[in-house]
Amino acid sequence: MPHTQSELLAAILHDVSRQPDRPIRRAVAGESLLALQAARVGLASRPCAAPQTGRDSVRLPGPGTSAHEVAERLRDPDITDTDQISWAIAAVNALLPPPQQTSVSFGQEVMAARGAGKNVAVVGHFPFVDAVRSAFANFWVLEKRPQPGDHHASMAATLLPQADVVAITATTLLNGSLAGLLDLCPKGSLVILLGPTTPFAPSLFDYGITVLAGCDCEDATAALDGVRHGRLFRDLPQAKQVTWEAPHGV
């Protein structure tokens, strides 16, 4: 039975509800990322930010605001402000800690190692895609704004069912498309949710995701200052990529 995005988001929020609430200590907006500090630093992509207005146009959650309260905005189907959806995911990520089972590695390294010689699909044009194309039997990049060599996102229903390994940008949590994409992935395929927006929510394993490839910011001040100055995730000081693979039997 197909899953819905609202069902998936509710499952994430159930994971969040098991964590103690924390007040937001600081929130900052950059041109491509939002970040807030509660139990830890939580990041989320800001895919629709306008570079010329960027961080000056967004309403920041005030210090002392409940992180649970901000995260719960994901339940509101009437919110159309993409920044508010991103703040909600950032709050989720500020409350859900990386589990002890994570390893310090890049999600694309998992994709390359497990997808060598196989059919691999990537949803979202990541910076690494051109460097890895030759490693796979077939390699399809799906993108709403395709670059040379990409396929339009509308081809997902044709290409994803053929893939052995699928890497999906976690911005699909923000634009409402993740649940539908997961339903297109073949049973038994390796599915990676990738990027700084990725929450370490164990319930996501129940929806067919195999690997959560998110991040951990070891220096809160450096990470927040980096976001405020418009840095991309890969340029944030002491922000490391970590991966968590579904336990056997999930």
Give the SSE map:
Blueprint: H1 5-17, E1 26-29, E2 33-37, E3 41-45, H2 67-71, H3 82-95, E4 103-104, H4 107-115, E5 119-123, H5 129-132, E6 138-143, E7 151-152, H6 156-159, E8 165-169, H7 172-175, H8 178-184, E9 190-194, E10 211-217, H9 220-228, E11 239-245
Parallel strand pairs: 5-6, 5-8, 6-7, 8-9, 9-10
Antiparallel strand pairs: 1-2, 2-3, 4-11, 10-11
**What's the overall geometry?**
globular
Query: Counting H and I runs of at least 4 residues, what is the number of helices?
Result: 9
Weakly predicted, low-confidence segments: 50-57
Give the terminus-to-terminus CA distance: 18 Å
| Topology, number of strands | 11
Biggest beta-sheet profile:
8 strands, mixed
Structural class, judged by helices and strands? alpha/beta
* Helical content class: 25-40%
Strand order of the largest sheet: 4-11-10-9-8-5-6-7
Average pLDDT for all residues: 92
From the alpha carbons, calculate the radius of gyration and give it in angstroms: 17 Å
The H/E string reads: HEEEHHEHEHEEHEHHEEHE
- Beta-sheet strand percentage? 15-25%
Give an account of the 3D structure.
This protein is an alpha/beta fold and 250 residues long. It contains nine helices and eleven strands. The protein has an eight-stranded mixed sheet with strand order 4-11-10-9-8-5-6-7, sandwiched between helices. Strands 1-2-3 form a three-stranded antiparallel sheet. The protein is globular.
Concise account of the structure shown:
By secondary structure, the chain is α/β, with parallel strands linked by helices. The protein is 28% helix and 21% strand. The strands form two sheets. Strands 4-11-10-9-8-5-6-7 form an eight-stranded mixed β-sheet, sandwiched between helices.
